[in-house]
Every structure is written in C-alpha cells, then in structure tokens.
Automatic annotation (TrEMBL):
Keyword Heme recorded: no
Protein name: DEAD/DEAH box helicase family protein
Pfam families, A to Z: RE_endonuc (PF19778), ResIII (PF04851)
Keywords attached to this entry: ATP-binding, Helicase, Hydrolase, Nucleotide-binding
Keyword ATP-binding listed: yes
InterPro entries xrefs: Helicase/UvrB_N (IPR006935), P-loop_NTPase (IPR027417), RE_endonuc_C (IPR045572)
Domain Type III restriction enzyme C-terminal endonuclease: from-to ranges: 662-737
Length: 761
C-alpha cells in the first residue's frame, strides 16, 4: 500500500508560521552554501511578533538566543501535538523556505535511532507528493562517518539537500562518532564538521526536549546554523514560539484519536505477574473488539505494549526466545480467540498463526548489551516496525501486536495503533504523554486514505489505553500540563444493542432503498475548464499591492514591499487539484494586465486565483455530474455499534434503533417529537457515498410512515459535496435534506405522537 497525502489547512498554517518570519528576505539561487540572512534584527523581530499576534501567542520582546547557535541566530519553536504530522510539516517548511528564499542546505537533528528511521521513511514516502506540489523533491541521506561522499553531494548538489543525523553522531565520546571532528585522509585531509558548517545549514531539531544538555547545545553550535527550528509536542525550553497546536485544540478539531482508558483496580499486595496477565488479556480483548468492527473495511488494527524490561518479552536463553510476557500473551490470545463465535471474523483469526501475530522492537538489549540478537527474528522485526510502515499497515501482514521497551516512545508512530498496554510504571508526565502519543494519529485504510471525515472521525478513531493505574490516577497524570480532550473511562462504556425498532418494516424498507450502489460520472473537458478559469481571473481577480504606509503630520508616504518569487504553478496545483500543465495553460491565457497583478502580491495572487479556479471546477463538476445505479446491494448496519456511559445517558428514546443517542442531540429531540417519523438511525461511519470531491458521510436515515429521507447532520457543510449527495440519493429515489423539514401535523384531533416499537412503558 502507499500512504496518501493531501494539503491540510492546519499544517499549512504551521508552515506559514515559520516561513513568514523571514518576509522581506531576498531570494538567492543556492550555491554550495545558504545565503546569509539579510533581515535587520528589528525587522526579524517585527515579523516574528506579527506571526505570534495572528496566532494569539505571547509576543517576544527580543529575539531568543540559545547556546546551540551564535548570538543573532533565529531560534523558532513550533509546538504540534503528537500525531498531527509535524514531520510532514517541517519537510514542507523546507520546501517553502527553498521556494521563497532559495535556502537549500538543511540538517534534521534527531535524538535516537527510532526517530531517525521514522524521519528517513517520511522523506521517502512524501517525496512524490512534494514533487507534484513543487516540481522537485528533497534529496535526503542519513549521516554515516564511513560514507563521507554523501557530504560532497550535500555541499555541491543541486536542489534541496537534507542531512539526517542523530545526536550521538556528533555528541558522543565513541571513536567512530568523533570522526566528524577529525582530519581524514579519505576525506582529502578535511574535517567533516568544516564542510557541514561552511554550508551555513538550516538546522531542524526533532524532539528538542531530548537534546537539551549543555554538551549537546555546544556540539550543535559547531554546525554554525543559519537558524534553528525546533518541533515538538512537549518543549521543555521555549524560544520564539511561532505556532501552537496543543492537545486540546487537536482533539477539538478532530485531528487525533479520542482516548479511552481502562484502569486496573488492584490491591497493593497483588503480584505484579497477576496484574500484567490481566492487562495483557484486556489489551487483547480491546484489540479484538476493535478489529471485529474494522477488519472487513480493510483497516488494520495494531496494538502497542510498553514493557519494563526487554527480558520479559525476549529471552534469548530459551529455545523459543519467549519471555514471561510473551508466554502470557500466547496463552491469553488463544483463549480469547477460541471464545469467538463462528463466522467470517473467526475464520480470519484462524488464518493468523499466534507466533506470527506478535513481535518486539528494542533499541538495545540491556542484558546482553547488544542492539539485537543477529540469530533471532529481531532483525526482521526492526525492519518491519521501524522502516516498513506501509507493510505493517497492510491487512496481509500478520503482525498485529508490538512489544517495545523505551525505543518507540518518541519519533515512531503508526496511524493504526488502536490499543496500547502500559506494562510498566511511570510517573514521568512527559514520558506518559509521549507514549500515548504513539497512537494518536488518525487511522488509514488499505488504500492509505486517512479516516478523517469530520462527521464520523471519532466513531472509527479511538485509542484504548490499558494501564495498571486507576482510571482517575492515569488521567490526572495525562491531563497535567498536557490538556488532552475528554478521556473516557473504558470500564463504564457499554456497547448499545439494537432494539425492536431496527426490525420494523418501515425501517427495513428504508434500509433496502439506500443500500443500492451507484457510481458517478462527470462530463467536461480540460479546454472548457481552462476557458472558464481564464474568464473568471480576467473578470474577478483582485490583488492589492503590498506596501508600507508612513504617516507623518499631514503627509502620507507609501513604500512597496519587496515580494518573494513563488512556484505559482505548484501553488495552484496543490490548492486546487489541477495539474501543473492546466495551471500553466490558465495563466498563459489571461490578459497581461491580469497576470501583472502577480507583481503586486504573489501570495495574494495565488490565494485569489486558487479560490476562483476552485469555484469554476465546482461549477463544472456539478453541472456534468450524474449517478448510475448499479446492480447489487451493500450491507449497511453491520456489527459497528456505538458505546456509551449509561450513567450519563439521556432519557430513553422511543423511535431510534438504540435506546440512547450519542450525537446530534438537538436533531434527535426533533425526530422523537415528530408524529410522521416511524424510526430513525444515524448511518454507520463506513456508509459513505462517492463524489468527485471525496467520499461523503450523509448523516441520518429517517423512516416516515409512508416514505423515507436522509438528513445531513454535523461535520461536512461544503455546499458542493452536499449537492453531490442530493444527486446520489435522487438516483436512488430518496429525498436528501440538510436539516429536518418542518413537520406537518398528520392528526386532525391533535393526539400525541404514538410511541415507537422500541419504547419502554
């Protein structure tokens, strides 16, 4: 499979926060070193404060300094919650800094092997995505003191050059790691550090809270960085903070999974082994519950278990190399699988040998002082877990449970970690938050598409954490300083069962009508799109010149702001989805006066042009959109059922297929009180309809006394996608509404609404 990437507004904001700090810097074509920063300190501080002001952050009073760089070097911090794509953000920031200012030499500094390999893989899998957006991709390599020819290419190579280096490679007393400071015969009697520092690189620090010692900072300063950019969810030392996406905001915007905690209540005298056995069993149980819902959709479910000692999972002295926890896992897994009822999912489980469904990754075995045992399967596990994320995400790959020591605490994550077991004790807030962060990223399906439809994102994306602490204790530690959103108590959640309304003839008939499949077709050509876009730009594109206004007494003076060149074709292609060739044809077709406005404000021109092009695309898509109904039907209401804390549930419902509702409560109240409504239900998250603008979740199915309709609710309010939904359901002869229409009384005597079949008396 291949992970799919798309432009996300919140990530674009994080990129702009850094890039805009250097507004006014002239662009210079790169040579073998980055051009120096030409902004006066006052102008740089003014830019930083402008970025902070628009983000609502505290304003810097003076440029921050750090022992990692010379005085006067910009030190910018970006705070992004784990799982929101900070690696993607700083790679895109690299591309934007090159496009706008010409800087081309970059170093990404990481604190360890797991993060280094994750960063390397991110550069690999995003390469084509960025090539399409920018016309080029960054060339990256991992620093290795035995392969110094890569430094020659870093210095002299064309385009964006990125060196990835872990801190031990320049901050360790080990002999091999000191070679970076030695004159080497194989390197023409030069020192690698001199070649690196001569490039005046932009230094990006991933997880700076782990690279904060005086020795590390002093070593970093020897790179002579042009600027230092720091990216983390948990900064310990703040510099000039220019962007913040904290845990609370990430949860509120539905950019990460919601969290459910299952805490064990056990007496202090309980044996640790007994506690761990229960935890492992609960992890497996939660895994199977989630997998039972998602496996038919092609969404791989992974579970991650943090352990206190490597030997508890991997015992190299045993014939089968299984440690205590691994043996417990095998016993409990086989018992729970044996209890599964017969059916497709049971047969799916039977196809996965237990010995192949769990693996471990450990950076170093503390008992043997070895990284991994070369005679064991750890080498393959290392490659699978750390380097081949796409294979690990494939439903065909049998590994589903991963045991790890501290090695996967930071830097590594996988979008399909749904369950986490804390088989260790921790009172370290940052450590706890980083560990939970391994599972916050939104899941992907077998095609690499993110499950991020706002209407149903948290129906699918839920991280269950099984801990040996009480629920209250664990959540208190998690919330302290981190501000995660609502955290549910997994012990109190009950999966709702469907009541008699689900079997009523009116509802079954409504389900039958919307279970038909349909595909769309769109009929328009590129020439028509280009012509409409050219006309729209010539008619409606407006750009105000960028300038600084100075008022003195009765006189006003205007000074134009020097604009930075942009990859305009890449801008338009990335924002609208058209090809660079089509974007070029549109720009070539507009009047000279229209295109001349680009000089007034390149960024404003790109924004306005992208908006107009998108509008014309929507018009053509909708004008030429039609749906064809296919033979065959799909099952809609599978075993995916909502979970709820019954202690906080509202009143029992009369007309829903469940006794309680978990969302859109205002709409639920209206449907409950309408006389013409027989039965209603929220459509499951996997019921989506195809549109040219992406799959769309339509909302609620309502069975009326003599008809049915679908009502959109929450989430996506894009009028173009809603229009697509209307046409889809029109093809099925089912009305579609954005909101419930006003009820018309169907009773002449004013009787009260009759209770549904699922009501309790």
């Amino acid at each position: 499979m291949r992970l799919q990437f798309k432009v996300q507004a919140y990530q674009t904001e994080a990129v702009a926060a850094v890039v805009d700090c250097f507004a006014g810097q002239p662009r210079r074509d790169p040579g073998n070193r980055n051009a120096p920063l030409r902004l006066a300190p006052e102008r740089l501080l003014e830019n930083i404060r402008a970025v902070q002001k628009r983000a609502g952050l505290p304003l810097s009073t003076a440029p921050a300094r750090s022992d990692a760089a010379a005085d006067g070097t910009p030190n910018l911090d970006v705070e992004m919650e784990t799982g929101t794509g900070k690696t993607y953000v700083y790679i895109k920031t690299i591309m934007e800094l090159h496009r706008r200012y010409g800087w081309a030499k970059f170093i990404v500094v990481v604190p360890g092997v797991a993060i280094r390999e994750g960063v390397r893989r991110s550069f690999e899998v995003t390469g084509e995505h960025f090539r399409q957006a920018y016309g080029t991709r960054p060339r990256h390599f991992v620093y290795d003191s035995s392969e110094l020819h890569e430094l020659e290419r870093f210095r002299d190579g064309a385009g964006v050059q990125v060196m990835i280096i872990n801190v031990q490679a320049f901050n360790s007393a080990a002999r091999d790691n000191r070679r970076i400071y030695d004159e080497l015969d194989a390197f023409r009697s030069r020192r690698p550090i001199d070649v690196i520092s001569a490039a005046r690189p932009v230094v990006i620090i991933d997880e700076p809270q782990r690279i904060g010692s005086a020795r590390s900072l002093a070593s970093l300063s020897r790179f002579d960085p042009l600027m230092v950019l720091r990216y983390s969810a948990t900064h310990r030392v703040l510099h000039d903070l220019v962007h913040r996406l904290d845990a609370r905001a990430a949860y509120r915007e539905r950019l990460v999974k919601k969290i459910t905690v299952i805490g064990l209540e056990s007496p202090s005298s309980a044996p640790v082994t007994a506690i761990r056995r229960v935890q492992i069993r609960e992890v497996i149980r939660a895994h199977l519950d989630k997998e039972r819902e998602l496996w038919a959709r092609g969404i791989k479910v992974l579970s991650l278990l943090f352990i206190d000692r490597v030997s508890r999972y991997r015992d190299y002295s045993a014939d089968d190399e299984l440690g205590e926890y691994a043996r417990i896992f095998v016993d409990e897994y086989q018992d729970l699988v044996a209890a599964e009822p017969d059916g497709d999912y049971r047969r799916h489980l039977a196809s996965i040998p237990v010995e192949r469904t769990h693996q471990g990754y450990f950076a170093i075995d503390r008992r043997t002082r070895r990284w991994v045992d070369p005679t064991s399967t750890d080498i393959d596990a290392y490659s699978l877990i750390l380097r081949d994320r796409e294979r690990l995400l494939s439903p065909e790959e049998p590994v589903r449970f991963i045991f790890s020591h501290s090695a996967l605490r930071e830097g590594w994550d996988n979008p399909n970690v749904f369950v986490m077991g804390m088989l260790k004790s921790s009172d370290n807030i940052v450590s706890r938050r980083q560990e939970v962060g391994r599972g916050l990223r939104l899941a992907v399906d077998r095609n690499g598409e993110r499950m991020d439809d706002p209407a149903v994102v948290h129906e699918i994306n839920e991280l269950t954490v099984v801990t040996d602490e009480s629920y209250a204790s664990f959540v208190a530690g998690l919330q302290k300083e981190s501000g995660f959103g609502t955290v549910a108590d997994g012990r109190r959640l009950t999966r709702l069962t469907r009541n008699a309304n689900f079997h009523r003839p009116e509802f079954r008939a409504a389900v039958e009508r919307i279970s038909r499949r349909a595909v769309y077709r769109v009929d328009f050509g590129s020439d028509e799109l280009i012509a409409r876009c050219v006309a729209a730009l010539d008619t409606s594109l407006r750009v105000d010149p960028r300038r600084i206004e100075v008022r003195a007494d009765r006189e006003t003076r205007m000074y134009p702001i020097q604009n930075e060149p942009r990859d305009l074709l890449g801008d338009l292609a990335g924002r609208t989805g058209i090809t660079r060739r089509t974007a070029g044809a549109v720009l070539a077709g507009v009047r000279a006066e229209t295109f001349g406005r680009y000089r007034d404000d390149p960024a404003g021109f790109a924004d306005a042009a992208a908006t107009l092009i998108s509008q014309e695309m929507s018009v053509l898509l909708l004008r030429g959109l039609a749906y064809d109904v296919l033979p065959g039907r799909r099952e809609i209401f599978t075993d995916i059922r909502p979970r709820i804390d019954l202690a906080h549930a509202g009143p029992r419902l009369a007309k829903n297929i469940y006794d309680h509702a978990t969302t859109d409560l205002a709409l639920v109240h209206e449907l409950e009180t309408r006389e013409d409504v027989a039965v209603y239900a929220r459509l499951p998250g996997d019921y989506t309809i195809p549109t040219p603008l992406g799959d769309y979740h339509p909302g609620w199915l309502v069975a009326l006394d003599d008809d049915c309709l679908v009502i959109a609710a929450g989430g996506d309010t894009d009028p173009a996608r809603i229009e697509c939904a209307k046409r889809f359901f029109a093809a099925l002869d089912v009305p579609f509404r954005v909101a419930a229409p006003s009820a018309v009384s169907r009773s002449a005597d004013g009787r009260t609404p009759r209770p549904g079949a699922g009501a309790r008396r």
